[in-house]
Each structure stands twice: as structure tokens, then as C-alpha cells.
Design a protein that fits this description.
Layout: H1 2-20, H2 23-26, H3 28-39, H4 47-61
Helix pairs in contact: 1-3, 3-4
Length: 77
């Protein structure tokens, strides 16, 4: 089970990096296909990961032009 969690975490890290680099705007199909490699594990994903994947897929399918770049000056509360 640990290997599966590790695999999922690595794929989520890649997705997050790509989204924050706005790679989904340049190569939407590549990023969307990557989301599918994670969502096949839907039953074991955390609610947070599920929401992130859904938001990423929505941004791609709706051709959103909103940047996901992380603002280093923003702090979470």
C-alpha cells in the first residue's frame, strides 16, 4: 500500500508543479491525460486530492486563462 501512496504522491506533485507553472495552458491534453493517471485511484485518494484533480480538469476543459502560479508573497491563513 505504501508503494501506491508513493506513486500517487509523485503524480500529484507533478500535477501541482505543472498547474503552478501554467503548463496546462501550453499542453492541456498532456496535463489532462496525467490527471487520468491519478484519478484511476479515486477510491483511495484524499478528498483534497480529488478536489484538486477536479479543479485542474475543469481549468483544462474550460480553457481557463487564470494562472495557477503560486504567489510567493501570499501566505495562507
Amino acid at each position: 500500500m505504501q508503494d501506491l501512496k508513493s506513486k500517487i504522491n509523485k503524480r500529484m506533485d507533478i500535477l501541482q508543479t505543472w498547474m503552478e507553472e501554467d503548463y496546462h495552458m501550453k499542453r492541456p491534453q498532456v496535463v489532462y491525460d496525467h490527471t487520468l493517471t491519478i484519478s484511476k485511484f479515486w477510491s483511495v485518494l484524499s478528498e483534497e486530492d480529488r478536489e484538486y484533480i477536479q479543479c485542474a480538469q475543469d481549468a483544462i476543459t474550460e480553457k481557463s486563462t487564470i494562472s495557477w502560479k503560486h504567489n510567493a508573497n501570499t501566505t495562507e491563513k
